[in-house]
Amino acid sequence: DVQLVESGGGFVQPGGSLRLSCAFSLNKYCMGWFRQSPGKEREGLATMSNDGRVIIGDSVKGRVTLSRDKTRKMLYLQMNGLKVGDTSMYYCGAEQFGGCSTEKGFGYYGRGTQVTVS
């Protein structure tokens, strides 16, 4: 059973930084971060394949860093230069067989952590 638990969200001023964390239960999955605001589609932000290949979405490119600690089973998203438009619910996702890309949905998501930039 895949379990994903996000943390690290909160309130931050424009230009500030946050590091989101995701504790996951299984290795050998593609992992990623997504966000979704009310009335909008889920947006893929960054993904990392099991062999470490990283894809960063255009909307956050240059402002985020994705990292993974397989030993601790943690996934991190460091976000800098936050903007009001980054306000959203952020989700950690995992995908086993369906490919690793920010352009597609994943099979598993956590409950999310809220990020508010104001």
Most strands sheet: 7 strands, mixed
Element order: H for helix, E for strand = EEEEEEEEEEE
Structural class: mainly beta
Mind telling me the C-alpha Rg? 13 Å
Overall outline: globular
Keywords:
118 residues, mainly beta, 7-stranded mixed beta sheet, 4-stranded antiparallel beta sheet, 0% helix
Structure description:
The protein is mainly beta and 118 residues long. It has no helices and eleven strands. The chain has strands spanning 4-7, 10-12, 18-24, 30-36, 43-48, 54-56, 64-69, 74-79, 88-95, 108-109, 113-117. Strand 7 (64-69) and strand 8 form a beta hairpin. It is globular and about 35 Å long. 31% of the residues are buried.
Summarize the structure.
It contains no helices and 11 strands.
Give the helix/strand layout.
Blueprint: E1 4-7, E2 10-12, E3 18-24, E4 30-36, E5 43-48, E6 54-56, E7 64-69, E8 74-79, E9 88-95, E10 108-109, E11 113-117
Parallel strand pairs: 2-11
Antiparallel strand pairs: 1-3, 3-8, 4-5, 4-9, 5-6, 7-8, 9-10, 9-11
